[in-house]
Design goal:
This protein has 411 residues and is an alpha+beta fold. Helices cover 46% and strands 16% of the residues.
């Protein structure tokens, strides 16, 4: 006879998904508030911390759950069905910046960053500049070597969480003490004035007014002679010359996360559309009995399912320091984000005028999902990366093309 008194061990994946599903109705009820007020969802953060969704990918020895990227994307999809803003926070608190620190940071940096993320902070990744978007390596922000550290100067733009995040991973062109370019490096910056840790020389210059994700600040950040101590430099083993490429491998996980948000929004839209086709009656019968709408629904379902499979494949196919494969991540985000726009658009169409108004969440979801073919790598840049992988070449973005490569050949 089995021992019925023994408590079964519940897999972490089940616990995390159960927690996400339990929060769903609360997050959905609050979502219109953040959209209309353009406020960050501070009220949701304690709930995420309480059920350990913040920093769940952080290894257990640093206080996290040691969750895999596959477990994370399952949670992200579930949350994105209800609140895009909260799903975005979960991605930033488990992928991208924090995963780069966990892969390449020192022990002290890992402990330091884990403390903030587990308490509810999301690391702001500071790469984009006014004149360096998709061409990230054209950044002009500099970090010049001085005694004990570096002096950071420059402007970053469209920084997600700027003005809210305490931790920042800032990418800048590294100069030695003589001003010679050493490559691009990552620098950890803490700005927490409410707790006495204001960073001198760091300012949030302005916040963009966005079409969707209205509660998430997209900010322009200024750095004027900001001092970064040597122990806050995130330096991969390959050093500054190749360090940017190493650090950007961590961005593959963030891309999978962003694609999953888009897919989760689409899955939520599909749920709403399915419900409405059963409820709404016209011409004496439920509109779900009309074949034209049935075919639309079937195509929406196929797009969501295909996106889910591609994202899960990318989340499980890990390379190098344990990050998703670049081509699989690019392909999954490209496919998921473009098809999510299509699915949400079709769902809104099924609702007619009701979907265009704010009685249903479709108009908000439509505005939110539009961002995901832009942020984190535009769909066009990702297609270029996928094509380059297929062709076995590094497809150039410069006007003079192949002659720009280091060997001076057309490789």
């Amino acid at each position: 006879m089995s021992d019925l008194s023994a408590s079964p061990v519940i897999p972490t994946e089940t616990l995390l998904l159960k927690a996400a599903r339990g929060l769903g109705p609360t997050l959905a009820a609050r979502a219109p508030k953040w959209d209309q007020s353009r406020e960050y969802c501070h009220e949701n953060i304690p709930d995420l911390v309480a059920v350990k969704l913040m920093g769940m990918s952080i290894p257990r020895e640093y206080g996290g759950q040691g969750a895999s990227f596959l477990q994370v994307v399952d949670v992200v999809e579930e949350v994105a069905r209800h609140c895009t803003l909260t799903a975005r926070i979960i991605v930033e608190a488990n992928m991208g910046g924090i995963s780069a620190v966990m892969a390449y940071g020192t022990e002290e940096q890992k402990v330091f960053c884990a403390k903030y993320v587990l308490a509810g902070d999301k690391t702001a990744i500071c790469i984009t500049e006014p004149d360096a978007g998709s061409a990230a390596t054209e950044m002009t922000s500099t970090a010049q070597k001085v005694k004990g550290g570096y002096r950071l100067n420059g402007v970053k733009h469209w920084i997600t969480g700027g003005g809210v995040s305490k931790l920042h991973l800032v990418f800048a062109r590294v100069l030695d003490d003589a001003g010679v370019d050493q490559g691009i490096g990552g620098f950890l910056l803490l700005h927490d004035p409410d707790n006495g840790d204001a960073c001198e020389g760091f300012t949030v210059a302005r916040r963009e007014r966005t079409m969707g994700l209205c509660g998430m600040p997209e900010a322009e950040l200024h750095f004027e002679d900001v001092f970064i101590a040597d122990d806050m430099v995130v330096l991969p083993p390959s050093g500054f010359k190749r360090g940017f490429a190493d650090l950007m491998t961590a961005y593959n996980s963030q891309r999978v996360g962003a694609g999953t948000i888009a897919m989760g929004i689409a899955a939520g839209a599909l749920d709403h559309a399915t419900r409405y086709l059963k409820e709404r009656e016209q011409f004496g019968r439920p509109i779900g009995e009309f074949q034209g709408l049935q075919w639309m629904l079937a195509e929406m379902d196929a797009k969501v399912h295909a996106s889910r499979l591609m994202l899960r494949e990318a989340a499980q196919t890990l390379c190098g320091k344990g990050f998703p494969d670049m081509r699989l991540a690019a392909r999954a985000k490209m496919f998921a984000s473009e098809n999510a726009i299509s699915v949400v658009n079709d769902a809104l169409q099924m609702f007619g005028a009701r979907g265009y108004g704010d009685q249903e969440p479709l108009e908000r979801m439509y505005r939110d999902v539009r961002m995901f073919t832009i942020g984190g790598g535009t769909a066009q840049i990702l297609k270029t990366q996928v094509a380059g992988g297929l062709l076995g070449i590094k497809v150039p973005q410069t006007r003079d093309g192949y002659v720009k490569n280091a060997e001076g050949t057309n490789k």
